[in-house]
Design a protein that fits this description.
alpha/beta; 7-stranded mixed sheet; elongated
């Protein structure tokens, strides 16, 4: 008859001790994570700093030149946001999206996209700007400047609410100011009115006149065609001419410019962010972005700014401009592998030490069973021999 044995339970005291030590080890590992720089950290920081400098220049301009009553409350970014309405306001606009675009770290997001598109210094980048998102325009210019690319930009001057809709400080005026202050070395080569059909049909005669005046005082080529198709073709011709026969490596659309997108529906069909290969669908109307894509050129669609910000963990609707270098686009928290291994070994040894009596009993039980079986077998064999 074999020995009967059941493993002894670990004492409650040892179980509590092991639990407490395990929790402390978990907290130690969790609280001692270290920062790891993300790819292209230095370029991202440089682009964000450049954007911050550009925003400071524009803010200083408004501080010196005028002190308007603002329609905005609780924003430290007041000077950098446009008006609710003006003579050159073409469309509705979301205040929170405009505030998001004034985060200098948005420039680091553009750096990330450009690098993922495998662009390098000296590559030609075609850009389509609008007056609606001067913050995103500046973020894009900052990234392109830092990475040493060669941009060819065409802008539409009209702006939605809260954008660059001050008739005396339109987007193309901001460009000129930022060049004068040596923030950027390039600006638009041509500009259109923007708005409906790229002809500013949604605003009055005086608004269209103010936009033309802004384009003229900045010595830019005026794009004012009779149809949207003609405006799109003119833009393509300007991009190709300005590139001097060199290949355009990327197209960036900023905002909802109709000539750039082709139609509002296209803006919904083309997802925000980088698209190395844009699937060509039955678009309602071809725009510059779809024409570029049909030529095998990667595109970046900077529309639906809230979604892009969420994707890159940038703050939504910030009331204070975030500091440069703030966010997971620059660095992430990772666990210390050597601490994890040390903790694991320590807990394993401790578990063995606290349960060694159980292990001894288990071992003895196994040996006893083996001996009993061996003796029983030998006894049975002996009996068989005697019977024979």
């Amino acid at each position: 008859m074999g020995l009967r044995w059941s493993p002894a339970n670990m004492s409650k005291k040892n179980l509590v001790l092991l639990t407490v030590i395990s929790l402390l080890a978990y907290l130690l590992v969790e609280k001692t994570k270290v920062a790891r720089k993300e790819a292209f950290f230095d370029e991202k920081i440089a682009a964000a700093e450049k954007m911050k400098s550009a925003l400071d220049v524009i803010k200083d301009y408004y501080t010196i030149h005028e002190d308007p009553e603002s329609d905005i409350e609780n924003y430290s970014t007041t000077e950098l946001l446009g008006k609710f309405s003006s003579d050159i306001t073409t469309d509705f606009g979301k205040l929170s999206a405009k505030a998001i675009s004034l985060n200098p770290n948005f420039a680091a997001v553009i750096v990330d996209m450009l690098k993922k598109a495998n662009l390098k210094s000296g590559d030609i980048v075609a850009i389509g700007c609008t007056g609606s998102f001067p913050g995103v325009n500046i973020a894009t210019y900052s990234a392109v400047e830092i990475l040493g690319m060669k941009p060819v930009t065409i802008s539409s001057v009209g702006s939605s609410m809260w954008g660059a809709n001050d008739p005396q400080m339109t987007w193309v005026d901001m460009e000129k100011l930022l060049i004068e202050k040596k923030i950027f070395s390039f600006r638009s080569v041509a500009a259109s009115l923007g708005g409906i059909d790229d002809q500013a049909k949604g605003i009055g005669y005086n608004g269209r006149k103010l936009i033309r005046t802004a384009i003229q005082r900045n010595n830019l080529t005026l794009i004012e065609e009779k149809t949207l198709d003609a405006s799109i073709k003119r833009r393509m011709a300007i991009y190709n001419e300005a590139s001097n026969g060199a290949p355009i490596k990327l197209y960036i659309n900023i905002g909802g410019g109709i000539a750039s997108l082709g139609s509002r529906i296209n803006g919904q069909l083309i997802k925000p962010g980088l698209r190395k290969r844009l699937k060509l669908k039955n678009f309602q109307q071809e725009g510059v972005i779809t024409i570029m894509a049909s030529q095998g050129i990667p595109v970046i669609n900077l529309i639906n700014i809230s979604e892009i910000a969420k994707r890159y963990n940038l703050p939504q609707d910030p009331t204070i401009i975030p500091a440069v270098g703030n966010g997971s686009i620059f660095s992430s928290q990772i666990y210390r592998l050597e601490l994890i291994l040390t903790t694991l070994v320590t807990l394993t040894v401790l578990l063995f030490a606290l349960s060694k009596s159980n292990i001894y009993l288990w071992t003895a039980h196994k040996i006893s069973r083996f001996i009993n079986r061996f003796l029983f077998k030998q006894s049975a064999l002996g009996g068989q021999k005697q019977n024979s």
